[in-house]
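Progress note, sequence design subtask.
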């Protein structure tokens, strides 16, 4: 079977390589010439454990090549971005998906299958993509097959989860569903769950919305507990000992191309019916502002001048900064002329990011941890010996040792910042 995968990002590239390493002929398409050149010379452009080794195998077997040009194939997989529109409810921008589908149409033949892996708003496949495909004169469900099959993987574990996770196969018709199942059965060991396209769309969106709402509850608990001088992290730990409670962990906000984006697609499709989802989004999107205030309050209390920001990605041990609240916090602090702000992230290669922890913390007054990279787990005062004062605000509760750290704060103990500030004012 020959497959064309359009979009070679965090999902499209691993998907293409997995098919290639299971005896399929795969052509990966991207509009970025540098990405195409890198892949064809055997170099991945994203950070994902095991992916380089998988690409090496695919290149060696000559089952994968990258290209700028669409080719005829048996199946086409669309895995391109779906950003938010700049409207009131940040609805789904389908322009990249539609562009990808339109690029397929000139080479589309009877018997072909088109799979949309991109996360899209409810009813997009049936209401937006189906008419495009049938504009060719080919009938979906008879001549060609159209499926929505959302990805359900965790960055850092994508290779394993592509194979072992259950997969929703949402066909426009039953025949489309069967065509999608035949394709993914090539390598997926998890259950292939049959669904309609619209049900598959909503299922993916609700999986991420559930987590977003749960995180919003935890973040609201942090704000309540800060006001009442209660340790929110202790509350969560104790509550989760109940057999039917699973509160998520709070943090500086929610990022990535799933949790920070997908709930808006539901809200925009049914604004009057989604007040809870919209409120959760508001709570999580204002967490960076809350963290900035806690940081500036602490800097005032300790008379600090320099902040070393640790971590810019939206989650730990990856290089992905899409929709990252950490980056938003960094930018806000950087804009404050009262402080010198330096970013340190061992996973990010950028001119403005310091690669040396020693240089980043030199003469700093505060380390602000915004990502739970494993490199930060055993952080202690010996690592921070060149700081002006060893104070840490750990918004991810990642530090395990805390040896010789003068003052250590996390989202359970931030009320102490307010108390210390109040005491300083009284003094």
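Output:
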């Amino acid at each position: 079977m020959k497959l064309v995968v359009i979009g070679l990002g965090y999902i499209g590239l691993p998907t293409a390589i997995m098919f290639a390493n299971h005896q399929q002929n795969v052509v990966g398409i991207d509009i970025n010439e540098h990405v195409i050149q890198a892949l064809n010379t055997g170099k991945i452009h994203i950070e994902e454990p095991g992916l380089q080794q998988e690409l090496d195998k695919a290149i060696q077997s000559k089952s994968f090549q990258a290209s700028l040009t669409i080719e005829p194939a048996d199946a086409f997989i669309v895995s391109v971005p779906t950003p938010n529109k700049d409207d009131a409810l940040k609805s789904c921008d389908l322009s990249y998906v539609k562009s990808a589908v339109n690029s397929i149409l000139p080479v589309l033949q009877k018997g072909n299958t088109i799979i949309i892996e991109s996360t899209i708003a409810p009813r997009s496949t049936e209401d937006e993509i189906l008419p495009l495909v049938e504009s060719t004169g080919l009938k979906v469900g008879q001549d060609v097959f159209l499926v929505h099959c959302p990805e359900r993987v965790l960055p850092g574990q994508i290779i394993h989860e592509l194979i072992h996770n259950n997969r929703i196969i949402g066909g426009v018709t039953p025949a489309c569903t069967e065509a999608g199942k035949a394709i993914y059965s090539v390598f997926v060991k998890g259950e292939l769950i049959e669904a309609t396209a619209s049900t598959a769309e909503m299922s993916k969106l609700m999986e991420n919305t559930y987590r977003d709402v749960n995180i919003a509850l935890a973040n609201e608990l942090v704000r309540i507990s800060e006001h009442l001088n209660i340790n929110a992290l202790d509350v969560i730990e104790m509550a989760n000992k109940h057999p039917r409670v699973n509160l998520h962990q709070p943090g500086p906000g929610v990022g990535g191309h799933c949790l920070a984006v997908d709930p808006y697609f539901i809200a925009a499709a049914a604004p009057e019916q989604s007040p809870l989802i919209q409120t959760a989004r508001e709570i999580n999107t204002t967490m960076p502002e809350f963290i900035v205030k806690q940081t500036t309050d602490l800097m005032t209390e300790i008379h600090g001048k320099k902040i070393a920001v640790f971590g810019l990605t939206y989650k730990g041990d990856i290089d992905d900064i899409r929709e990252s609240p950490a980056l938003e916090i960094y930018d806000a602090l950087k804009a404050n002329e009262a402080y010198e702000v330096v970013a340190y992230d061992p996973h990010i290669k950028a001119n403005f990011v310091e690669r040396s922890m020693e240089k980043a913390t030199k003469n700093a007054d505060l380390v602000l941890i915004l990502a739970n990279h494993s490199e930060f787990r055993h952080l202690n005062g010996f690592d921070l010996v060149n700081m002006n004062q060893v104070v840490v605000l750990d918004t991810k509760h990642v530090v395990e040792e805390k040896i010789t750290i003068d003052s250590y704060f996390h989202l359970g103990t931030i009320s102490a910042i307010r108390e210390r500030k109040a005491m300083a004012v009284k003094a």
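The first strand starts at residue 2 and ends at 6. Work on this subtask will continue into the next period as scheduled.
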